Amino acid sequence: RLWQSLGKNGLTGANPQLAWPAMDMTDESGAIVLRVDAPGLKSEDVSVEVTGHLLIIRGSRSEQRQEKKTGWYRHERVTGSFYRTVPLPSYVDADKIEARYDQGVITVTVPKKAGEGPRKIPLAT
């Protein structure tokens, strides 16, 4: 289910049809790692928090107002606030979650508890 519900995304101040920000979630040895594209943000524009079994990533990008000298040809860069909510499985250690922001990417590492996690059940024939 975790992979099927990669998380809800919320957009305010932006076109809700856009999937901003894009997020990848991978199962790496001993941890679940989330990478969220957030170019142009400052680290103080981003927050990562855990509430119960939910990981919440929030951020905002302000529109850079320019003096109106010419008209727009195209305006695609998204501005406004965003949040991504990701349900955490019971086998992760929420107290040891780490987050960093580097070169426009928010990386959140969610360690798994030792010896826990999903296990395969063999089918009897």
What coarse outline follows from CA principal-axis ratios?
elongated
User: How can the largest sheet be summarized?
Assistant: 4 strands, antiparallel
Residue stretches low in confidence (pLDDT < 50, at least 5 long) are 1-18
Q: Report the total helices.
A: 0
CATH class reads Mainly Beta
Mean pLDDT: 81
Secondary-structure element pattern, one letter each: EEEEEEEE
CATH architecture tag: Sandwich
Q: What fraction strand? A: 35-45%
Provide tags for this entry.
125 residues; 4-stranded antiparallel β-sheet
In short:
0% of the residues lie in helices and 42% in strands. The protein is mainly β.
Secondary-structure blueprint of this entry?
Blueprint: E1 8-12, E2 23-28, E3 31-37, E4 46-51, E5 54-61, E6 80-87, E7 98-102, E8 105-111
Antiparallel strand pairs: 1-6, 2-3, 3-8, 4-5, 5-6, 7-8
Q: What would you note in describing this structure?
A:
The chain is mainly beta and 125 residues long. It has one domain (8-63, 78-111): Immunoglobulin-like, CATH 2.60.40.790. 0% of the residues lie in helices and 42% in strands. The chain has no helices and 8 strands. It has strands at 8-12, 23-28, 31-37, 46-51, 54-61, 80-87, 98-102, 105-111. It has a 4-stranded antiparallel beta sheet, with no helix packed on it. Strands 2-3-8-7 form a 4-stranded antiparallel beta sheet, with no helix packed on it. A hairpin with a 2-residue loop joins strand 7 (98-102) and strand 8 (105-111). The chain starts with 7 loop residues before the first strand and ends in a 14-residue tail after the last strand.
